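S1.2 Input.
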Amino acid sequence: MQLSKEEEDALDGRYGDTLALAYRVLVAIGNAMDADRLISISWAHVSGVNYNTIGDAGLIFLEDISKGNAKVRVRTTLNPMGYDPSKVDELNLSDEFIEKQGRIIKAYERLGIIGTYTCIPYEALDATFLPKHGSQVSLAESNAAIYANSILGLLTNKESAISALASALTGKAPYSKLRAQESRSARLCIDVKYDMHTELDYALLGYYAGRFNEDCIAFKGIRQEDIFSSITKPYSKANAKALCSALGTSGSAGMFTLNYQETIKERVEFTKHDALKVMDELSDADDGDVIVFGSPQLGLDELSMLLNMLKGRRFKKRCMIFCARSIYSKAKDLGYIDALEKANASVYCDCCSCLTPLISRDDVDSVITNSVKAAYYLRSWNRVGVCLSSMKSIVEAECV
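S1.3 Output.
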């Protein structure tokens, strides 16, 4: 891989150990992916924030690299942490978890990273913050990377926590795979032969499609207006987020397109039978103790949709809703939060239903959720049962 003089100097340690380490990471990844050079990026989104996911080894690493004068060179945002600090008094968390989570946050702050704590930066951030169409970015959160590539027209690979952090510190990324226009064409087309009505249908499709491990997948049989946001169809964003998050959960795909080409040789169908197979795999409970919404975190449109479905009714059991703090602030001003709390829902910021210590096998046997991503992680990580259902079906079954 060809490096500029400045990049070679940084790699050799002339600008400090942290920057040298970051360049070593990028060069190693670039060589492994046959990249011929590094390119500049304009935005990075870093994962590896939740203490549950990175543990003591990750904490020590972050504290070590943040001790010097190293700062990120591009606007950099953060994925969710492990809990909502504004509600710590009502959460059953250990002092050790809270203390170590706080140290992780301080390490990221020293590096100059913006504390957004959201897995939906494309929705939680002001539109003026997002780079223009065609910009190179580096996003570690899988649903955000797929959404950026497929919906926003940005260019990123599905980055790891380490590679995105290295890109943030250097402002560079290896020029490979989905960063090159010639690699953003699908080799596989999935023909959707199933009536798609709810966000759960799109999530089941995404999980099915992700297993083919293609960088880019084309879908035939999905209408543009049911995925790309519009004022008249607010549910389209929920469908897109469900598709992106599930696609990123089951495999390595980093992008989808609805502009399929008839010349694509590899074609498969997605039928009702396929959707039911995914349901059977991920949904192993007939009911749940707790209702969970928010993986990815809910946006303003989804909170509004939920309230419209509720129509003044209340949840019969505990309902946990996860959203970004910037979304929470807007929803609070609109009266959404008060209405949801009256409906027996608790709204949490800065964290997510995935890999959270807030849902424990000690207290919960099973959950009800509309999220395929949440179902996957709640079963594999939290070891609780899952009942999968659409948001509308959950409201109809669980409200009075």
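S1.4 Remarks. The chain has three domains: 5-180, 185-278, 284-398.
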